[in-house]
Design a protein that fits this description.
The protein has 321 residues and is of the alpha+beta class. It contains ten helices and eleven strands.
Amino acid sequence: MVRTCIAPTQTLLNNRYQVTRILEDGPWSIAWLAEDTQLPSRRQCIIRQVKPLTADAYIQKQLCDRIQAEIDTWQKLGGIHDQIPWLSSFADTTGQVYLIEEWVPGLTLTQTVQKQGALDEITVQQILTKLLSLVDYLHQNQVVHCALEPNNIVLREDDQKPVLQYGSMLNQVIAKTFLENNVRPMPWIATSGFLPYEQVILDQHYYSSNLYSLGLISTYLLTGKDPYDLFNLATSTCDWSPETSVAESAFVAILNKAIARFPGERFLTARQMLKALSAPEQFVQNSLSAHSTLVEQMGAYLTSCLLSLNPSEQTLNSYPG
């Protein structure tokens, strides 16, 4: 790892952006709140700098190219959907990459729980519905978000809509690039408990992977507890419902389907999950009906297997004389 060079806050970044304060200083990047001095309004924005973590010019270029590809993808979406901030970028004379993103005043979901404690069911359903609408928009544009977690979602101050932040996307790109190139030592970063096993272990991403994350975000909002604290190693499930006052509600059944261990057991699309939220009792009824049908089919299958293994003995009269 090379020595980090952080731009001094008393200078204008890109001869334009006046830094006012540091927002976060992570292992792989640093973020400042800044003002755009070229606009009469001096609009506020977030500037993120990727730290120079390797002296290998090839890996550094690969990293910059991948970050730019991600920026290109999000630029097509940001500023169109009102829950996705606009995004831009620039590079300084040394090749360091900076992301410029819209500043969204408000608290992250993590900060909200830390300030207010666990949220009530109605509030969580409202947040989840808005997040599903956002994720459905991403999926319609063939984008699967790789780091949906409470610390990367801000409840906008004006209307309390959940809005994405880009810092987690940046960390995912850096981590993947360093792992593929076997860079050592790896900068430390906390592993999120809100990502499904197929994403963390197998590096596979499905639409239902995002629904899994949204389901666990909802359980976090309802309980105030991280998934790691609720995970049952014996059953490989998140035992969250006893920690809430909604243990018998249809909402619990919907969330449990979203956080099922295997992708095929979850909701397949955000619209499917939205439909269940709009008619939760109907969802439960349909689930019970489907379960009964499955039990009947399994019973018939097992019966046929047993008969094939133990055919009925023929009667004496049927033997050839």
